[in-house]
């Protein structure tokens, strides 16, 4: 193949057109890829935003050194509820066994059965140590006689006799 010099614009365009067509074929899907890349960048930004939001929510749930998270708050509240339930159960059992309410917190046990056993044993101890109180007299004559005797004894002590 011998070298031919290009002398006209048409010859130049013809020679270049073939080269340009080959290059166009190389980059034929470029616009499609460009659109996909832009869409990917947009999704990546959204994804990064979601990751930040997820991290913030996880921090709110788990907490950190400065602020307690929801998990810790729930555990604390569940502990308080359990404490109140046990206190109420102890009070109920103490009332059933005739134990003063001041001593209800002294009952020990893991469940209702153990608490009842402890309350029954405490009730036996308390009943053994108590002496029955004397019955008061409702008879007005006895009350007046007693009062009169007390007055005369007091007068004798004062020397007013």
Kindly describe this structure.
The chain is mostly helical. Among the domains are: 30 residues; 59 residues. It has five helices and no strands. It starts with 8 loop residues before the first helix and ends with a helix. The model has no long low-confidence stretch (mean pLDDT 84).
Summarize this structure as a short list of keywords or feature phrases:
mainly alpha; 5 helices; 161 residues; single chain
Topology:
Layout: H1 9-26, H2 30-62, H3 70-97, H4 112-129, H5 140-158
Helix pairs in contact: 3-4
Strand content is under 5%
User: What is the chain-wise order of helices and strands?
Assistant: HHHHH
Q: Would you identify the regions where 5 or more consecutive residues have pLDDT less than 50?
A: none
> Average pLDDT value?
84
What radius of gyration results from the CA coordinates? 49 Å
Oligomer: single chain
- The strand count comes to 0
What's the end-to-end separation, in Å? 164 Å
Structural class: mainly alpha
Helix content percent band: over 70%
Annotation field: number of helices: 5
Shape: rod-shaped
Let me know the largest β-sheet. none
């Amino acid at each position: 193949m011998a070298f031919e010099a290009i002398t006209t614009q048409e010859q130049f365009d013809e020679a270049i057109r073939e080269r340009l067509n080959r290059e166009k074929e190389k980059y034929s899907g470029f616009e499609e890829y460009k659109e996909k890349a832009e869409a990917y960048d947009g999704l990546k930004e959204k994804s990064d935003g979601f990751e930040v939001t997820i991290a913030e929510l996880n921090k709110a749930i788990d907490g950190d050194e400065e602020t307690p998270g929801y998990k810790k708050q729930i555990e604390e509240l569940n502990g308080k509820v359990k404490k109140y339930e046990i206190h109420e159960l102890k009070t109920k059992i103490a009332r059933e066994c005739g134990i003063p309410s001041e001593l209800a917190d002294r009952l020990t046990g893991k469940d209702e059965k153990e608490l009842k056993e402890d309350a029954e044993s405490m009730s036996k101890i308390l009943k053994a140590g108590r002496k029955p109180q004397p019955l008061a007299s409702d008879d007005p004559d006895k009350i007046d006689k007693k009062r009169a005797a007390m007055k005369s004894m007091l007068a004798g002590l004062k020397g007013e006799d």
